Amino acid sequence: MRKKFGIDIDGTVTSPDTIVPYMNQDFGLSLSYSDIKEYDLSVHVDISKSDFAKWWLDNEARIYEASPLTKEVRAVLREWESAHDLFFISARSKHLLELTKEWFVKQDLPFHHIELIGSHDKINAAKQYEVDIFFEDKHDNAVAICEQCKIPVILFNTPYNQEPVPEGVIRVNNWSEAKAWVDTWLKENA
């Protein structure tokens, strides 16, 4: 049975350490990916949250355009694309839609729909598109989507999302583990 997969982009499809070199370069830091223990990156710089937000707005397009894929994602998505609908739901701002689509094409990644909502609150989009499962890296998003939408959420392990998770949020370390869990879930929910 065809399912709708809701998939976050940044930190899930793209490598979760993408922003670290940019922060190191622009702020004179020497952070490693393992140093990032909170989703809020502004805690690592000696400027105000508003100044960090301005830096992000000034740099997000170049960072997104050069974002590397996380390992295994292309092969897994290609395997799923003919059997399921791949809906990418991202907190990216709407004005980045063309850049995002061009990145998907350049990376040779399949997609059926890309929705940039400009907010981390993905519950309404998950409900609107009636996704059956969600793939996420942000802890509070994963928990909220699971609880509000009553669907399983695959949470990709990162240093910044180590809080406890409820039943229904499944931690994985990579796309191979995600695929193995989803394959079992699909057989059980055929």
Automatic annotation (TrEMBL):
The record's comment on protein family reads: Belongs to the 5'(3')-deoxyribonucleotidase family.
Q: Does the record carry Hydrolase as a key word? A: yes
Name the residues that span the membrane: none
Keywords, comma-separated and alphabetical:
Hydrolase
* Group of enzyme by EC: hydrolase
Q: What is its EC number?
A: 3.1.3.-
Phylogenetic lineage: Bacteria, Bacillati, Bacillota, Bacilli, Bacillales
Top-level taxon of origin: Bacteria
- Supply one GO molecular-function term: hydrolase activity
**What is the protein's given name?**
Nucleotidase
